[in-house]
Amino acid sequence: MKPDSFCNPVDKNGEGITDATAHLTCYKIRDANGQAPFAQQSLSLQNQFGSGSLLAVSPRLLCVPSEADGVPSALNLDHFKCYRTAALTSFARRDVFLADQFENKNTTVLRPCSVCMPADKNGEGIQDPSTSLTCYRIRDVYGQPRFSPRGVTVHNQFGDTSLTALQARSLCVPSTAGSVAETFAASLRWLPSSDPGVAGYRVYARFLNAPYVSAQDAGLPVTAPDGTLRSVVTCLDKAADHAFAVTAYLRDGRRVHSLTNSVCPPPGVSMLVQVRKASARLPESATRWETSLSRPAVATFASPSFS
């Protein structure tokens, strides 16, 4: 593997550094022969810069916890697998002050360029599966001194390496990340049922044939249905407006409820969808909710059994 970049812990806007001794050395990676190709995935991200959606396009780097210049470290860090990304929502540029062991300067954060997920390398485990890194392209604010290349000696599980840092490339920010399917499914909620005999459903979300959304499943318990279906819809297609429909189906294929001809909001803007139920509660024989966009995007919510 070839080293691609070296990551210093950084103090952003005077917020401090948790562990100045722990670094990451990132190596270019590619799939071994015979591996299935990567399926692009849409991610919902949240961090200090706000929330947004990215498309993970392809694996790019493996970042390995490392010591630098002989300074020992507990290396209380995960490995991270980083993916090239494409933005699905807009990002507003901003200036921050960054201070690390190489330099201190005002920096402009331009746009997200990659996302790094905690990775289990060779069965070594993951310390914090809830924290990922969103990396942003950066450049110096006008008038800041140019970076002077400097050498650094790296020690990690792959051995010892001497590197030369050439320039600052990106700022990686701790983030929480979830698939768009999980985010969409988590927004599906029924009002509590007055029927004590209804324990609840397990709902699964599947996104099929959607531009910028990969096919994937997410399961979570949902309270028993009664009253109004409430679901937040965000259109991820680049076009501004799309009509969509929400329909409930019974096991025999008959439609129970339907809401159509609503206008899907622009990308990055969420909209509350409400479907009024015609009866006291959804029959046990109801098998799924289906949300379809006029572009070929389909989300199916299936409730095959009680949980």
Tally of domains = 2
Fraction of residues in β-strands:
over 45%
Q: What gyration radius follows from the Cα positions, in whole Å?
A: 23 Å
What is the H/E order? EEEEEEEEEEEEHEEEEEEEE
What does this entry look like structurally?
It is a single chain. This protein is mainly beta. The chain folds into two domains: 3-178, no CATH class; 187-302, Immunoglobulin-like (Sandwich). The protein is built from one helix and 20 strands. The protein has one helix at residues 180-186, and strands at residues 3-7, 11-12, 23-28, 41-47, 50-68, 79-87, 94-99, 104-119, 132-140, 150-156, 159-165, 170-179, 201-208, 217-222, 228-234, 242-250, 255-264, 270-276, 286-293, 297-302. The strands form three sheets. A six-stranded antiparallel β-barrel has the order 4-5-6-8-9-12. The chain has a six-stranded antiparallel β-sheet with strand order 14-13-20-19-16-17, with helices on one face. Strand 19 (286-293) and strand 20 (297-302) form a beta hairpin.
